[in-house]
Amino acid sequence: MRRGIVSMVACPDYDPGRVRDAVERAVELIGGWDRFLPAATRVIVKPNLLTAGFGERPAATHPAVVRAVVEAIRTTGRGAFVFDRPGYGSLRGVARTLGIGDLLLPFEPPPARLESRLGHFGAIERADFDGAPIVNVPKLKTHGMMGLTLAVKNMFGLVGLARRVEWHLKAGTRYDHFAGLLVEIERGARPALNIMDAVVGMEGNGPASGTARRIGCIMASADALAMDATACRLVGWPPERLKVLEAARRLGVEFDIAPETEGGRPEDFAARGFRFASMPGADPARPLSVPGPGPVRELVRRWSLDRPALDQRRCVGCGRCVEVCPAKAISMRGGSPAFDLRACIRCFCCQEMCPEGAISVKRGILGFFRRDGVR
Ligand code: SF4
Ligand code: SF4
């Protein structure tokens, strides 16, 4: 069976039994656990545990999916443990809030390094599991910088927060560089299997402040890129214009942009009218880019870039946005955040991590000239 094949199994809700059945079926359709975890005695399960405290908003991989994957692997006689590095808060705290604290890897893994081929970021540093295979369990969500956060992007959670900040700063508004970095991290970590929670996805102002959108599907594939291309089709995003897939092409990574599926077809689960994030990199109808030579482009960019904007009525003055801003472009004034737009690199981490959904993205004044506005 080809590595790039993607299975799609209906799963209408998060009933634990139904989720477990869907996970088992999805893996079985592409060859079964033994095919992907042949010699493993211990397996790392990597969900998207962005943070806790987002109430009903589906910002993290649903705990029922995480538990189903861990229990299914353990049933095969292998050990399975959850690991992630949340964007805000401790792993233990976030996992406990989500009710999966008992599944965590009991130790902090050391870093592994590999030289980035891109040259913008230096060595890539991510958690190392001493050869234990990774089962990647992403959530289908919109994302301001990358358009969608799917299987490839989920591997960024293996990176320590200090490095994430450093790389956000190095990438700046070059989202193409950042997408390349994500591909390199995924290729380095190379999950043995990807199982996507697309039962309820997030549409709109993702990856944290959007709204729930029922899709009703669990997907599995050994190839994160093939899985992302298929997920694009579920929500109506042209896969060839997803930034991580564009970057994979540029890096010469081979993958199938229209992979074969088993169990179901993308059109069976199509979420019609799916709303994307209203952000620079997030609208597939506006592919690229500011025309003209470098200095002109720089000038236009300064005036055209979308920017973070505060909804004063929602803000509770918690200061989390100040803490997570990699560019130190936010300060608290009179109990509210104030943005220094000259320092701001438009990473939208503040929007991503605001627990109240009080930060949105305001369109730049020259949006007319811009198609995605960021390069
Ligand atoms: S904008 Fe959000 S993160 Fe920032 S202080 Fe207000 S509520 Fe907290
Ligand atoms: S203000 Fe927000 S968008 Fe700008 S650099 Fe800071 S976190 Fe990123």
Q: Count the strands?
A: 15
CATH superfamily of the largest domain: LarA, N-terminal domain
| CATH topology annotation of the largest domain | Rossmann fold
Beta content: 15-25%
Distance between the termini: 39 Å
Overall structural domain count: 2
Describe this structure in words.
α1 (16-29) crosses α3 (63-75). The N and C termini lie far apart (39 Å). β13 and β14 form a beta hairpin. The radius of gyration is 20 Å and the shape is globular. It folds into two domains: 6-269, Rossmann fold, CATH 3.40.50; 294-362, Alpha-Beta Plaits. Strands 1, 2, 3, 6, 7, 8, 9, 10 and 11 form a nine-stranded mixed beta sheet that branches. A two-stranded antiparallel ribbon has the order 4-5. It is of the alpha/beta class and 375 residues long. It has twelve helices and 15 strands. The structure holds iron/sulfur cluster (2 copies). One iron/sulfur cluster binds at residues 310, 315-321, 337, 354, 356, 358-359.
Features:
single chain; alpha/beta; Rossmann fold; nine-stranded mixed beta sheet; 15 strands; globular; binds iron/sulfur cluster
Write the layout of secondary structure elements.
Blueprint: E1 6-10, H1 16-29, H2 33-36, E2 42-47, H3 63-75, E3 79-82, H4 91-98, E4 111-115, E5 123-127, E6 134-137, E7 139-143, E8 147-149, H5 151-154, H6 161-171, H7 175-189, E9 193-203, E10 211-221, H8 224-235, H9 243-250, E11 261-262, H10 294-304, E12 307-310, H11 320-324, E13 330-333, E14 336-339, H12 349-353, E15 359-362
Parallel strand pairs: 1-11, 2-3, 2-6, 6-9, 7-9
Antiparallel strand pairs: 1-10, 4-5, 7-8, 9-10, 12-15, 13-14
This protein binds iron/sulfur cluster (SF4) (2 copies).
Residues 310, 315-321, 337, 354, 356, 358-359 line the site of one iron/sulfur cluster (SF4).
